[in-house]
Amino acid sequence: MHVIRQMVPTRDHITALLRLALPVATVQVGFILMGAVDTIMVGHVSPRDLAAVALGNLYFFLTTSFGMGTLFALDPLVSQAFGAGDRAGIARAFQRGFVIAVGLAVLSSLLLMPGRPVLAFLRQPEEVIPIAADYALVSIPGVLAFFLFIVLRQGLQSMGRVGPIVVVIVLANAANVFFNWVLIFGNLGAPALGAVGSGWATTLSRWFMLLTLVSVAWPFLRPYLRPLRSDALMLEPLLRMCRLGVPIGIQFFLEFGVFGAIGILMGMLGTIPMASHQVAINLASVTFMMAVGVTQATTVLVGQAVGAGDSERARRSAGAGLLVAGAVMACTGAVFLSVPGFLARLYTPDLEVVGLATTLIPVAGIFQIFDGLQAVGSGVLRGVGDTLAPMLVNLVGFWLIGLPISLYLAFPGGLGPLGLWWGLASGLAAVALFLLIRVRIRFGRDLTRIAV
Q1: What is the mean pLDDT of residues 162-169?
Q2: Is 93 inside any structural domain?
Q3: Count of CB atoms within 10 A of residue 4's CB?
Q4: Domain of 34, in residue numbers
């Protein structure tokens, strides 16, 4: 109980969190809105194209989730260095992040190439596989831009410099709508490419985001990116940074992987379940980005406090994050429970897809609060450099509890798509509980800066 009392936030801690979390959440919501726009625009082509985008996105993020999580090692490294006033440490973290991003981009690009045989092996709908595989192929040119953008985004956020990212994400959303309008529907003389056109639009948007962020934030970034530091290429520190980041990467893969497994199982049930799942999961992803915004703000504030040697501020910042995320996700969950049919019809006019999605969206409403708490729990631990425990918690909660429940309810239990989603909710609840226990244990110990 003593640790819990130390984590109770004051008004100042909540205010500091909201001041950073609101722009970060804006960025996260803007980022996921690009995917929502893709889904909405393709949903007006055909259910097959909608299912193809769902499957293609699933394949893309399954192959890139490990790399994305690994680069989140920048969160504790940059935030703690910033809190300690260590400018050289910030520069080293940025430049090593770029080196690691290039290697991860090569790996992910290779994994994206064999789309057709992989999706066929996973018994996805035959009419969807060729389009989804082509969607994955045209995503490959954007992988490097995706990872480099993550390096810049995480580094800037960790120093509290979110303004340039907000500007970029607003511009990128406008650009993405334009690219989709041209390439999905064949406007301005372009061929009408449907779902594949959406893939090309996403690739162009990722390069647009990277180049625009470099341009907008260059005056601030320049001292950290130039000159190139020789120690940024030293193998031993790179490996130590990877040892910090790889558990986060595995955690991301396990978490996204279980959502991916549910998506694949939906595909086995048919095109309509897959399309309905995409509608519901996209809605949940949009609201989850609010929790991610709170999570990343909490990670930054906890890391900066640890770097400054202020353990009390670190603990109360962690408490503020958990409190705010729980409140925000309770509100979004209430919306999902209240108007599921209205939300489903925003995505598609197809009555079969709307009907099934309307049964899945309320389940998303119920698991919202668990999803928010588990996200912030992971972020709090990441702020102090504790990355192994969240990985193990994800393995147990999602794969040993949630997925078996999904399989049982969907198939022997006869609930089909709804059963898959109830199992997902069970896994999220288990992960949230385990992570809260770990936070209590870890924050009862000394909080010291990590060193690479």
Answers
A1: 93
A2: yes
A3: 13
A4: 2-442
Give the CA radius of gyration of the chain: 21
Q: Treating both helix axes as pointing N-terminal to C-terminal, what angle do 11-43 and 311-338 enclose, rounded to 10 degrees?
A: 40
Summarised one tens digit per residue, pLDDT across range 88-130 is 999 999 999 999 999 999 999 999 999 999 988 888 888 889 9
CA angle 77–79–81, rounded 5-degree value: 65
Q: Under 8 Å CB-to-CB from 37, ≥6 apart: which residues?
A: 173, 176, 177, 180
Tokens standing for residue 289:
């980005």
Per residue in 121-162, pLDDT tens? 888 888 889 999 999 999 999 999 999 999 999 999 999 899
The predicted structure's pLDDT at residue 217? 95
Query: Tokens in use for 147?
Result: 């990872």
Global model pTM greater than 0.70? yes
Distances (CA, A) of 130 to 52, 62, 101, 260: 8, 18, 29, 19
Q: How far apart are CA 366 and CA 364, in angstroms?
A: 5
Q: What is the DSSP letter of 142?
A: G
Could you count the other beta carbons within 10 Å of the beta carbon of residue 133?
A: 24
d(C-alpha 233, C-alpha 408), whole Å: 49
89 part of a folded domain: yes
448 in a structural domain: no
Helix (H) or strand (E) holding 262: helix 235-269
Q: Is residue 297 part of a domain?
A: yes
- Calculate the alpha carbon distances from 166 to 143, 146, 161, 162, 287 in Å: 21, 16, 10, 6, 17
Please report, as a single letter, which amino acid is at residue 216: V
